[in-house]
Amino acid sequence: MRTATPGEASGQDDHCREGGFGLIEVMLAMVILAFAILGVMGMFQWAEHGLRQGERATRALAMAESRLEAKRTTPWKALLTDDLDADGTPEITMRDDGTHPDAVAGDGIYSAGVEMDGIRLVWTVQPDRVGSLRSAGSVVIQARASYPAGRGQRREIRVGTLRANPAYVGVR
Questions:
Q1: How buried is 139 (Cβ within 10 angstroms: 0-12 exposed, 13-18 middle, 19+ buried)?
Q2: Are 105 and 97 in contact (CB under 8 A)?
Q3: What is the pLDDT of residues 111-125, one digit of tens each?
Q4: Total structural domains in the chain?
């Protein structure tokens, strides 16, 4: 009767005791790793697209809010003019004549707009009654910023406020 060697007693033969991985196992691991990396790269592209969209939306909102805030702090007499570069000289006079960006001539809504870095910003001032801005008791100020959202689409952000005429004393 023959006695078992230590390797035979545990069920291992000589060739398995050497350890390590074979060529097939290494190749299979590399293929699995390649597919995992491809999936991760796709997620990076998706995340980068989302971050770009978020950056555009944040910039558009900041532009709309800053224009609204500028209109809120402007003296009532200068409400229909805009000093975009803060040099003391108004560059834009809001109009109600139907030319871009004003939609309809004579509707009582004064409009102006600019485009910067692909973001279109349009702001409007609408008095509560037709006529001179001095006779209005209040105005609705709105700002709309639209930005490219990919695939030829645009998204729009709207903000608005109501501002009272500080010199208004009622209908005379």
A1: buried
A2: yes
A3: 999 999 999 999 999
A4: 1
Is 80 domain-assigned?
A: yes
- pLDDT tens column, 42-53: 888 889 989 999
- Whether residue 103 is contained in a domain is answered as yes
Is 41 within the bounds of a domain? yes
Identity of the amino acid at 75 = P
| Residue 79, pLDDT above cutoff 80 | yes
pTM of the model: 0.72
**Residue closest to 54 by CA, chosen among 166, 165, 149, 154:** 149
Beta bridge partners of 154: 148
Tell me the DSSP string of 77-125: GGTTEE-TTSSSS--EE-B-SS-TT--STTSS-EEEEEEETTEEEEEEE
* CA distances (Å), origin 85, targets 69, 89, 92: 15, 8, 11
Structural domain containing residue 96: 19-164
Question: What is the rounded distance in angstroms from the CA atom of residue 160 to the CA atom of residue 143?
Answer: 6
Q: Residue 65: inside a domain, yes or no?
A: yes
